[in-house]
Amino acid sequence: MSEEERNILKRIGQSTVEFIYGMAGHDMTRYALKTRGSMEHLFILITMGDLLGVPILPPYYSLRLLPYVVPQISTWKRRMLREKDLTDALA
Amino acid sequence: MNAIIVLLLAALGIGVGYFLYARNIDRNIVQPNPDKATPAKMYMDGVDFTPASRNVLFGYQFKSVAALAPLTGPVIAVQWGWLPALLWILLGVFFIGWAQDYGAMIMGVRREGETMGALSYKLISPRARTILMIFIYFYLLLIMGAFGNAVGKVLMTNPKVPFGIIAVVLMGMLAGQMTYKYRQDIILTSIVTVVLTFVGIWISTLPFMSNLFSAIYGLPESPKILLGNTQAQVIGTLLMIIFCYLGAVLPIWSFAQPVNYVSFWIVTLGMVGGVIGLLIWHPGMGDFPAVTQFTTASGPLWPMLFVTIACGAISGWHSLVSTSGTARQLEKETDALPVGGGAMFLEGAFAIIAFLTATVAFGGWQGYQDAGGAGAALAVFAGGLAQFLNRIGVPLVFGTAYGSVFLTIMAVTIMQLVVRFMRVASAELIGDSVPVMKNIHVGSIVALLLTLLFVWVIPWLAIWGAFGGANQLMAGLALLLIALWLMSEGRSHNWAFYPAIFMIVTDLAALLYIAYTNLLVKLPAAATGQAALAAALVGIICLVLVVAALVLIWDGWQAIQRTRAVKPAKA
Q: Could you say which DSSP state residue B330 is in?
């Protein structure tokens, strides 16, 4: 069997494994990631609510935590401010 | 006609549909750009927007769209003969089904990951979103009624089935604990739980277990104890309701997801085994007629055939999954065709297998009628699958119980998620005025009580037609939205617009026909209060759906006029 044929077989095998994972486990992985992401965003809302005009924690503590939260602020703001409706809950 | 010829025809239809028609529209009209950032990349937040590989999403999309309907619809529809059913599956998926799934997905990607609600708000009118929500709520209620009817009043009444379902649930919960609490290897978890589930299904077929459930059900002559339902149907429905309640209120990692995971293996292995058995056996249709008569117990061929076979040809549910779920995970625009279109063509193949369980597994028309016919479509599918599995050495008794468990878990895994959604919907819609609806137990119980009402009161074929009509009309509205989006971008829109018109006209006709037969024929002739209630419920819901759809269509038409007046430059 040539190298090219082996590569083709390898790709088919890999695609099949990914397809089965997509049917069997992707939902579970996605849900775990979503749960973690939601918890992180909730934490940022509590600590950095000032950025959205929702002051919850005194600014002193917010500023102490700010360096740790900076990498996530843009995605957090985007998600918090995005308009949602019930069809969001369908997937 | 021989089963192999049907499979070859299906393969040809799918091949030509995907590689010529769909790919031509994808390349020449939609023109996806693999280098353009998708919402999954642009807005990645680790929650709603996360990129995933094409193969993973293909599996995810297929699993999300394939439920009970593609398996049940074809078995009911062959009552008009095998030819109309086969033609609708092949032509429906060829011209309409993939176009909706793919169109909704690529529209979601190009419109920054917006859902159907947001898209209807922006492309049609502000009130369109509210009407769509009402439409979706009733549609979900009909899913619960149709699937619940199938499970509670048919599948669970077989005393060889309930312990198999209990085994699936217990092994699903064990899989959840092993994965999340004890952090066991997923391969070990899968082998242990799937093997034990099969052992459970086998135990459910043993005489001592089936005798136990026969005694509980009051068989062999199960007495009628509530609203004309037998003791077996009442207990079977209550078991299903308990399952859905647990799925709706328990943490999703501990119940709904691991049960779905174990169910996936049970269903996949059954389907693969069935297809292998079918290929080995490859029987013919015998005396099964190509066309029986224009009007059957389900109504006239047009429009009723087109709502009886729903998901196997086209389904509105897919547009919701494609926009809210998959469009937000696509890594490249070019993945939309293999994921959205590919999954729909595969589901068409799924429907063809179901079609063959009815037409070839029992040797012909008389065998189909003896197995129960359209009125017992689920028993026909389970029996047909058992016949196929028998060709690879699976005993018929085990195969029939396995087929019933297979169908039951396909239905209830969707139902538990629908109850979750209905709970959220009722909390959002009326939670402020009725605060108790925000309680998860109250919201779930209300949704399940409505389900019980539908299941115990309305006959199976009546609710299946209404569910199919709502489902297909949802698809027609999604296609209208896709056509509107294509117009707004100055692209050719006929491939979505004409299917939208066909689906909307057909489904409105179907819903009006169901409303007419229920409100003006069955209701005046109803001999009991229950029959009158069933006819009134189905008729009124169909009318509500028709009115909601007409308002959406009117607003959609106005939006089309606005879009035409603007005449945008080709994107």
A: B
Chain A: closest CA distance from residue B273 (Å): 16
Count contacts between A and B (CB, < 8 Å): 124
Residues in a beta bridge with B229: B226
List beta partners, residue B295.
B300
Nearest neighbour of B257 by CB, restricted to A28, A37, A78: A28
Does residue B51 register a pLDDT over 90?
yes
Structure tokens at B11: 């393969």
B223 pLDDT above the threshold of 90: yes
Q: Do you find a cis peptide bond into B303, omega within 30 degrees of 0?
A: yes
| B398-426: b (≥16 Cβ within 10 Å) or e | bbbbbbbbbbbbbbbbbbbbbbbbbbbbb
Cα separation, B208 vs B308, whole angstroms: 38
Own/partner pairs, B25-32, CB within 8 angstroms, 24+ separation: B25/B99, B25/B495, B26/B102, B26/B336, B26/B337, B26/B341, B29/B486, B29/B491, B29/B492, B29/B495, B30/B106, B30/B336, B30/B491, B32/B106, B32/B332, B32/B333, B32/B334, B32/B336, B32/B337
What's the start-to-end Cα distance of chain B, in Å? Answer: 48
Closest C-alpha to B237, from B256, B255, B221, B217: B217
Amino acid type, B3: A
pLDDT digit string (tens) for A45-84?
999 888 888 888 888 888 898 898 888 888 888 888 888 8
- Give dist(CA B37, CA B165) in Å, integer: 44
> What integer is the mean pLDDT of A15-34?
92
Contact B310, B471 (CB under 8 A): yes
CA distance B240 to B228: 19
**Cα B506 → chain centroid:** 19
* Exposed/middle/buried for residue B365 (C-beta within 10 Å: 0-12, 13-18, 19+): buried
Please tell me if residue A78 touches chain B, with a CB cutoff of 8 Å.
Answer: yes
pLDDT at position B467, please?
92
Whole-prediction pTM: 0.93
Q: Which chain A residues are Cβ-neighbours of B426 within 8 angstroms?
A: none
The CA distance from B151 to B154, in Å, is: 6
What is the distance in angstroms between the Cα of A60 and the nearest Cα belonging to chain B?
A: 27
Confidence of residue B459 (pLDDT cuts 50, 70, 90): confident
Average confidence (pLDDT) over B519-529: 93
List C-alpha distances in Å: B294 to B234, B291, B305, B312, B543: 35, 8, 10, 21, 25
CB-based contact B297:B78 (threshold 8 Å): no
**ipTM for the predicted complex:** 0.91
CA B469 to chain centroid, in Å, comes to 12
Q: CA B519 → CA A73, B246, B466, B512, distances in Å? A: 57, 36, 13, 10
* Residue of chain A whose Cα is closest to the Cα of B44: A75
Cα–Cα distance between B36 and B88 in angstroms, integer? 36
CB B250 within 8 A of CB B416: no
Q: What is the tens place of the pLDDT at every residue in B361-376? A: 999 999 999 998 988 8
How does DSSP assign B30-83, residue by residue? I---TTSPPHHHHT--SSS---B-HHHHHHHHHHHH-SSHHHHHHHHHGGG-HH
Q: Which of A22, A27, A37 is facing B47, going by the closest CB pair? A: A37
**How far, CA to CA in Å, does B253 sit from each of B410, B439, B516?**
19, 20, 45
Q: What is the dihedral of CA A6, A11, A14, A15, to 10 degrees?
A: -150
Q: Which residues contact B245 (CB under 8 A, 6 or more apart)?
A: B419, B444, B445, B448
